[in-house]
Amino acid sequence: MASTRYQNDPGLTRRMLGTWFGLGLLYVVAAAVLIAIGVRTVWVLVIAGGMLFCQWWFSDTMALGAMRARVLTPEEAPQLHAVVDRLCALADMPKPRVAVADTDIPNAFATGRSPSRSVICVTTGLLRRLEVDELEGVLSHELSHVAHRDVTVMTVASFAGVVAGLLTRMWMWGGISRGRDRDQNAALVFLAVMLVSVLVYVVSFLLTRALSRYRELSADRTGALLTGNPSALASALTKVSGDIAAIPDRDLRQVEAVSAFAFAPSLTSDFSLSRLFQTHPPLEKRLEQLAQIATQLGQR
Predict the structure, then answer these.
(1) Per-residue model confidence as pLDDT tens digits over 26-77
(2) Among the residues of the chain, which ranges form H helices?
(3) What's the mean per-residue pLDDT of the chain?
(4) Could you give the CA distance from residue 62 to residue 55 in angstroms, rounded to a whole number?
(5) Which of 76, 142, 284, 288 does the annotation list as catalytic?
(6) Which of 4, 27, 54, 92 could form a disulfide bond with 147, CB atoms 3.0-4.6 angstroms apart?
(7) Domain extents for the chain?
């Protein structure tokens, strides 16, 4: 991570390295199987790599476009910029661009390929609902994502899933099977490609979602320690999660494109098994962690 005053997280580092090792093993196994059955994986890897590079390089532009957000100057949003200035000074990190999305859905996100190209975005709904100390807690959480280069980490981690999905699509479009006879051997190859692609996609999906959930807990922890006010972040979480739960799903889909990088998940579910597929940990787990930090800081 960049050299800032955000506390290092050894647990996050271990999980990140473990996830990358597991995904790397998947790449090797998948490539070996596909090469063994005669599939030219090099083009798939090149195309997938190009897609993810563009996604990473233009991550800030795409996220702002998806939210129809506008970057604001200090003159246009003096109070919001003042909070960001104060946090960046505390963290000793470059100040990101500050943007606002005009929607009543209370949320925030940070994105960008590097700290120097990062942008932190809040919605007008969030600004209307939170007190200054609560907003500071949310922004400290988001700045932690910037300091830990989470966009880069999650883009790299998603590579296996993109490759697997692309393999399946290319086969169905006939890109891989062009020139093959449609006989029994071709059917077996098709089945092998499908099985490998589905397996790689499912495993990589679960690994990246687990890493994403831990990164959210890490951002809560480091953000709360930076401000020294975990109760304000807990209050913001409670407000935002409660208000989001009351908003119809059709409206929440407006921010679904940036949900993985948002302060709180846009779409929620009470079904326990679905938590394996969520990008954010359960609210109760986040609040429990913040309560423990408050105790450690002697606030309770």
Answers:
(1) 655 655 555 555 555 566 666 666 766 777 788 788 888 888 899 999 999 9
(2) 10-36, 41-57, 59-67, 78-91, 124-129, 132-147, 150-157, 159-173, 184-227, 230-245, 249-252, 283-296
(3) 76
(4) 8
(5) 142
(6) 4
(7) 10-296
